[in-house]
Amino acid sequence: MEEEQGGKKPDPMEQLRGMRDTYMEAWAKAMGEYVNSEQYAEQSGATLDAMLSVSAPFRAAVEKAMVNALQQMAMPTRPDFVSIAERLTNVEMRLDDLDVKLDRIAQAIAKIPIQPPASAAVHTPAGHEASAKKSAKKSAKKSAKQKGAH
Amino acid sequence: MPPEIVESKDFVAMQQRLQMLTKTLTSSAQVALTPKETVWTLNKAKLYRYVPQVPIEQRHPVPLLLVFALMNRPYILDLRPGASFVEYMVKQGYDVYLLDWGSPGPEDKHLKFDDYTLEYIPRAVRKMKALAGCEEFSLLGWCIGAILTTIYASLRPDDGLRNLTLLTAPLDFSKREQLTFARWTDEKYFDIDKVLATFGNMPAEMIEYGAKALKPVENYICNYLRLWDNLDNPQVVESWHAMNTWCADNIPIAGAAFRQLIVDLYRNDRLMKGELLIRGERVDLAKVRANLLAVIAENDHITPPCQTEPAIAKMGSADKEIYRVPGGHIGIMAGSGACKRTWPHLNEWLAKRSQRVQANQAPPEPRAA
Q1: Among B99, B125, B243, B305, fewest CB within 10 Å belongs to which?
Q2: ipTM surpassing 0.85, yes or no?
Q3: Residue B149 belongs to what domain range?
Q4: Quick check: A31 and B107 CB within 8 A?
């Protein structure tokens, strides 16, 4: 009948899913109200407190025993690693500070205008040729003088 | 079992569903795939720069730094290709950086908000500015990341921060009756000294339990029923898998920072009262001057809207806007609707404010909240 009317076969799973979702919605709402209550806060706090009261002394005892055992074997302990890690972080901080300073110095240097030396004022190819000829003449004169002296 | 049953269509289909379910529940999804490089590190923190995907002339000159919460991995911002905020923003031409706090070890139990806001963020910002070649930048903080960026923006307003975006920012803790976490962590019930004396840092498992217990039926039952109902839909399964990978990947919070979160904020609301001291400096919300966009998730059960709105009103920014999005704490940025609503709005807002300001050009017109 339904198949003829709607052109689709009714899916019994769909109805079950709908019922399930309605139930879940109601349950979610009830649980949402419960976890938001003072009663839940009190109960969860008490549970956590009981758990910590048991586990904290146990953890402390295990850690103490472990430190003692490792020290006996001349092995590094957790506090040793923690100390090294803290020192490494400090070194990283110092390096980062140095990086900042170097950047500032590099920026300051980049801002200084560079003045070319007076002797290197001529940069044209023609200028280069002229200066090269002059230096060649000077060196020739020097070598002639040296030969005469010998 | 008789072969006619084993070979039947329904049996094979059920077998395939079970295989898919097992695979999804027992493996980690491929996440955080947008190409990036690590450009700075300090202790466990890393600064990533995402490889630009548009030509330089089409890029926004002002870089964007993303700061996520301390207790979850930040790859929720880059969950999977096609569903990644980072990928979206990189394609929109932003120079995107992400500050990953890393997972604190026992040696980091003394780290406080003071360290995160006055050591880590300023150093990461300096590096980002040097790499981007820009003195100004935008900052996006999400959840506890929004607390940290707000503190930074208030204490260092002259650091070049042009745009501040706060997502689901828990800043006002005065309406305690609306905050389930405030009730749970009340000093009558929750002995923070005992917890931190035992563990040093706040363990990831406890944080995960706390987040899930806010909506126990949804998180522990309905979530898995949704997967079961959609096992035939690869898109839903892929999305569920990635999100489940992220939800199960929590990290501890440094003990001292957790103490500040509970004692200074949840119990005493010191930020809104103007009593929060960070290395002796008072955090004054009125000192935040950057252009401000606050995104509020209307159905957020972790940070209800009442935790953000009053704080935004107190901030000193001339240009501020509150954008309300239907959705939950994570869904507004990583849900299926994020790419249609939240991301385009963030892009539109930031794009107007991420241009190079010429000497004769006025900044964008302020918009009232």
Answers
A1: B305
A2: no
A3: 31-203+252-352
A4: no
